[in-house]
């Protein structure tokens, strides 16, 4: 009975992971598309005629495969360790088939449908023009001699620290509930912390993008995503601290499960915050450039 209850709980948690991935995949596609499009534009003179038209297909494939592949690798490793040690945490084969069916019949079709819908939808009211103002055909060179506060490599870690600072107290109670077998029941407060995190990630990402634009660095898409996602690095580092100083775990089995699930938590939290940051920065950039007057 205990084995069945634990397996059902893990099944529903993994199913929620799949659904959360579907919710977040839209802005992941946007970020990947901008990166692939910029790479194709830079190598336009050396590319074949049909290569640029295939960028959206590569974006769709990465959206479908990237995060699920990482998750499957981690969970398969943990499941193998569980089988070797003979614990009750082993995921049954039927549950694996159900999760695979959810991915094949829910995640993949929704990704394809959303990609085709977004590709053919009008991105703005001005004849489908995706840009809020007129854009030069020849990209301007990005200055290299900029102050330290204008370089993304310096701004991104700071943005991650500020975002992590808004949740680290609540993160302690969550990790205590997961690994020290204590009940967590303040879900209303958890919702409030999530709202605070959303606001902090949005504001810090907008500030980072603003500093980059002031430094004449118009490649803000990955900078915005990384500004929000960098918080996951501090979450993982805090998980390492929690393992050594707040738990009594030892042995390969406990260590593997702890860092495996901590990696999944940090990874998904990073994608969530990166998506929020990119969404906020995108709205900010469109808002400021929509009123630009070009003679």
Number of strands: 0
Q: Runs with pLDDT <50, length 5+?
A: 1-6, 18-52
Spatial shape? globular
Structural class: mainly alpha
Report, as a whole number of angstroms, the end-to-end distance. Answer: 73 Å
Portion of residues within helices: over 70%
Number of helices: 9
Secondary-structure element order, N to C? HHHHHHHHH
Q: Average pLDDT across residues?
A: 79
Main pleated sheet: none
The percent range for strand residues is: under 5%
Computed CA radius of gyration, to the nearest angstrom: 22 Å
Could you give a short description of this structure?
This protein has 295 residues and is mainly α. It contains 9 helices and no strands.
């Amino acid at each position: 009975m205990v084995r069945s209850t634990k397996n059902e709980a893990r099944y529903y948690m993994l199913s929620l992971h799949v659904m959360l991935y579907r919710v977040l995949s839209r802005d992941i596609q946007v970020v990947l598309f901008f990166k692939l499009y910029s790479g194709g534009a830079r190598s336009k003179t050396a590319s074949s005629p049909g290569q640029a038209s295939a960028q959206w297909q590569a974006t769709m494939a990465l959206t479908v495969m990237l995060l699920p592949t990482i998750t499957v690798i981690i969970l398969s490793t943990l499941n193998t360790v569980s089988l070797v040690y003979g614990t009750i945490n082993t995921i049954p084969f039927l549950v694996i088939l159900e999760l695979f069916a959810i991915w094949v019949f829910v995640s993949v079709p929704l990704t394809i449908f959303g990609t085709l819908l977004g590709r053919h939808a009008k991105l703005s009211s001005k004849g489908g023009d995706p840009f809020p103002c007129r854009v030069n055909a020849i990209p301007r060179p990005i200055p290299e001699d900029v102050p330290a506060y204008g370089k993304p490599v310096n701004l991104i870690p700071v943005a991650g620290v500020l975002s992590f600072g808004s949740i680290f107290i609540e993160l302690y109670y969550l990790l205590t509930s997961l690994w020290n077998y204590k009940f967590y029941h303040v879900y209303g407060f958890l919702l409030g912390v999530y709202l605070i995190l959303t606001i902090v990630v949005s504001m810090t990402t907008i500030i980072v993008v603003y500093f980059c634009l002031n430094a004449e660095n118009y490649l803000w898409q990955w900078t915005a995503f990384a500004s929000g996602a960098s918080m996951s690095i501090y979450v993982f580092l805090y998980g390492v601290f929690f393992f050594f100083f707040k738990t009594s775990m030892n042995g390969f089995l406990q260590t593997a499960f702890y860092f495996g699930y901590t990696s999944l938590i940090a990874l998904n939290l990073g994608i969530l915050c990166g998506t929020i940051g990119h969404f906020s920065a995108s709205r900010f950039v469109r808002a400021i450039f929509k009123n630009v007057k070009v003679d």
